[in-house]
Amino acid sequence: MQAMLLFFRCAGINFALEVTAVERASFLVAVQPLPEASDYVVGVTALGGETVLLADLALRLGLPDAPRYTLHTPVIWCRCAERVAGLVGGGIDGVEAAAVHSADLSALLHGGRAPLRGVVRRSGSVWLLLDPERLLAFDLAQPVSELRLDKAALRQWLLAGEEPAEADADA
């Protein structure tokens, strides 16, 4: 499958999102903290008259701590169905069309809920395509994110240069 993708890095990992799920990208805005929210919740802010949750993508995925936020920290504003959220902590690398391949990513998951749709080869690197529906399905009652990736398996998989599935298995 060919798709237009937004490419970005977070906690040293290459990620992509389909641009149909991205409303815009900007820098960090004023944030109101949410006491007793999940560990990955940065807070809430107003966006176009809506109150929108800001989530630290690295913490959401159980990756190493992201650097502290500044006014120059990028935010990727995503919408999936009726959910809107800002994903904080990724350096944007560009937008372009690319082939998305299916791959068995189950070994990368800590709890079995895949926040990933597939992989993309770009500039000799592997980029993980995030699933915005699962990524934006927040359970704020949980103290930590249920979408944690297995860091050791992810590191081993990326270092091995895992190849995407064959073209006939494309998503």
Strand content: 35-45%
Strand tally, please? 10
Q: What is the N-to-C order of secondary-structure elements (H for helix, E for strand)?
A: EEEEEHEEEEEHH
What is the alpha-carbon Rg in Å?
A: 15 Å
How large is the count of helical segments? 3
> How much helicity do the residues have?
under 10%
Described by strand count, sense and barrel closure, the largest sheet is: 5 strands, mixed
Described by the principal axes of the CA atoms, the overall outline is: globular
Oligomer: single chain
The unreliable regions are 163-171
- The strands making up the biggest β-sheet line up spatially as 8-1-2-10-9
Q: What is the mean pLDDT?
A: 81
State the separation between the terminal residues, measured CA to CA.
Answer: 6 Å
Structure class: mainly beta
Topology:
Blueprint: E1 2-10, E2 13-18, E3 22-27, E4 41-47, E5 50-56, H1 57-60, E6 74-80, E7 83-88, E8 90-99, E9 116-122, E10 125-130, H2 132-135, H3 151-159
Parallel strand pairs: 2-10, 5-7
Antiparallel strand pairs: 1-2, 1-8, 3-6, 4-5, 6-7, 9-10
Detailed description of the structure:
The protein has 171 residues and is mostly beta strands. The protein has three helices and ten strands. It has helices at residues 57-60, 132-135, 151-159, and strands at 2-10, 13-18, 22-27, 41-47, 50-56, 74-80, 83-88, 90-99, 116-122, 125-130. Strands 8-1-2-10-9 form a five-stranded mixed β-sheet. The chain has a five-stranded mixed β-sheet with strand order 3-6-7-5-4. Strand 9 (116-122) and strand 10 (125-130) form a beta hairpin. The radius of gyration is 15 Å and the shape is globular. The N and C termini lie close together (6 Å). Residues 163-171 have low confidence and may be disordered.
